[in-house]
Amino acid sequence: MVAYFREMFVGLWSLVAGMAVTIRYFVRPIVTVQYPRQKLTMTPKYRGHIELIMDPETNTHRCTACGMCVRTCPSSLITVEGVKVKKKKLPVKHVIDYSYCSLCGLCVEVCPTKALKFSNEYRLAGYQRQDMVIDLMARLDAERATVGLPPLPIPTPESEEETTSAEEKA
Ligand code: SF4
Ligand code: SF4
Fold first, then answer.
1. DSSP 128
2. Rounded distance between C-alpha atoms, residue 107 and residue 47, angstroms
3. Is 25 in a helix, a strand, or coil?
4. Which of 37, 50, 62, 144 sits CB 3.0–4.6 Å from 113 for a disulfide?
5. Do 14 and 69 reside in the same domain of the chain?
6. Is the Cα dihedral 32, 36, 41, 43 positive or negative?
7. What is the pLDDT of residue 168?
8. Which helix or strand (DSSP H or E) is residue 95 part of?
9. Is residue 42 part of a domain?
């Protein structure tokens, strides 16, 4: 008889303890994100793929197509092509193959004009490797479009065209 009531008490106690946990979490703020309908806000130090910084004063990039990032990248995944316009070099192509990127940050560190940063992009998926090839100039144009600016004009060379590419490193 005593064993019967002890068993009943233990059963009831476990029910109350379980319900207490349920009620405690029921009144706490929800931490689950309804992905993909909800977007996460990434921390400032989050490292997504690299991208060109849009200069707030000029609303354009600060890249001078110097090729330092191309030569520094340990995975040789950056391709930059530039042309000379009025003694200045401007990029016409700035592409990365993100599938090889180790997010080491060397390209960001080495850039003499501080033209690169890590994006807060975390929703990257693709069906083929080519989907991880990211055109940084096109991304900058998309960012300009969000503030009502047209795509950057493609610079045309006034003198001999100069090209810097990842292949030069080899
Ligand atoms: S190091 Fe900077 S300025 Fe030079 S090509 Fe790369 S992004 Fe452009
Ligand atoms: S973060 Fe490192 S691996 Fe990725 S593009 Fe920059 S230098 Fe290359």
1. S
2. 13
3. helix
4. 62
5. no
6. positive
7. 45
8. strand 88-97
9. no
For residue 36, tell me if it sits in a domain: no
Domain around 5: 1-31
* Ligand 2 closest atom vs CA 102: 3
User: In the chain, how many domains are there?
Assistant: 2
Mutation test of ligand 1: which of 63, 84, 95 has the most ligand atoms closer than 8 Å to its C-beta?
Answer: 63
- In the block, residue with structure tokens 């993909």: 36
pTM over 0.70: yes
Q: How many Å apart are CA 95 and CA 79, to the nearest integer? A: 5
Does any domain span residue 38?
Answer: no
Q: Under a CB-based contact definition with an 8 Å cutoff, are residues 151 and 144 in contact?
A: yes
Instruction: Decide: helix, strand or coil at residue 11.
Output: helix
At 62 the pLDDT is 96
